[in-house]
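Human: Here is a favour to ask of a fellow structure person. Comparing notes only helps if you start from a blank page. Give me a protein, with the fold worked out from its sequence. Please set it down just below, with no commentary around it:

Assistant:
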Amino acid sequence: MAEKNESKKNITVFGKETEFEGNLEFTDRLVITGKFTGKINAPKGDLEIAKNAVCNVESIETSSIVISGTVKGDMKASERVEICSGSFVDSNIETARFRIANNVEYNGQVSMIDKEPEVDLFSVASSEFKQSMLIHSDVVK
């Protein structure tokens, strides 16, 4: 299901014949179906790595990453990382939400990040700050 703001974003596609090497920055949505080597720095961007795509990266930093192909290199996504069936991923991943399908070959570590509370440390009592740091579970009891 597409998120509401994704429909307003521009989409750029690197075709299956495209081979790109270097540093890449973008703000909207990028789909890689070819080969990429280098570094991706797009903290507000959404990245999709298609089924036959191959990415050998120094690092990837985006808002979200959906992988259906092959990725080697560390990744950080502030919102989510999704690894689809048939993918090969060799990466240390840092993200707020993580989904991995069956039939995925994965090597690496996953670190879950939580957004920092919007509390000014110097303007609240320590008990209020501690309360803001509590993790609220979505689990129904």
